[in-house]
């Protein structure tokens, strides 16, 4: 927004000085501080809610920290958005997006990602392994077509608010208890038959699981997969997890790391891998959350949870306590 004549004189002076010529004949204006009104501030927020307003020939400002693009019928994430390195919130709700590019994980400052009401069927492992592990705090995946989330999803350990309502989820990640900063969880109107055992490790402010296909639990009909005697793999896996021995692909073969990542936790807090007793029991959601939205229209705040027992002794002790409570 400079004065055109002054700018031409300044550029002419630079050219002559570069050539080593005299510049005394050029009249330059006196330098004066620019007024605040004359300085154009970097644009940090942009909201687009109509397809006709969507920029086709111009780039998004690189200074953006908040970008909302809704109701534009986007079938995919525009790669120009993924160059916005300062972006803190990206709202792509109410579009037709079916798949997320792994490069979203390169947005190192991204703390809020809103994907409400799209056509998503998967959430990729690549995103779970990206820099989002250290930045993402709010994630809205509601009103999509998700049936499951990968085990690696629980590596997004900075998550505080997670919305999964109105999908087709048949299970939650079985290591969900690793999300120790999670405070708000909603997964209403899905197809969950039960919750994973790790769910009882959560410490929530609010939980909403209304309208799922929760099964009626029966602790007297367990699935028994005990191995007697236990295999060497089972013994080693239990010892590694129980003693908190560090492991990784730099120490063990990849398939053994996958086995260790898939260990279950008994109610006695000890680990088990392939030798266990599996049973579904009721969990009062008030044990994991300060505020609980009713699970059904009958006023229940209980939900079935899948539990594991590492031995017949642990299962017998649980049955004794269960029978004493019901007397």
From TrEMBL:
Record organism: Callorhinchus milii
Pfam families: LRR_1 (PF00560), LRR_4 (PF12799)
Keywords: Leucine-rich repeat, Repeat
Name this polypeptide is given: Leucine rich repeat protein 1
InterPro entries (alphabetical): Leu-rich_rpt (IPR001611), Leu-rich_rpt_4 (IPR025875), Leu-rich_rpt_typical-subtyp (IPR003591), LRR_dom_sf (IPR032675), LRR_domain-containing (IPR050216)
Listed GO CC annotations: cytoplasm
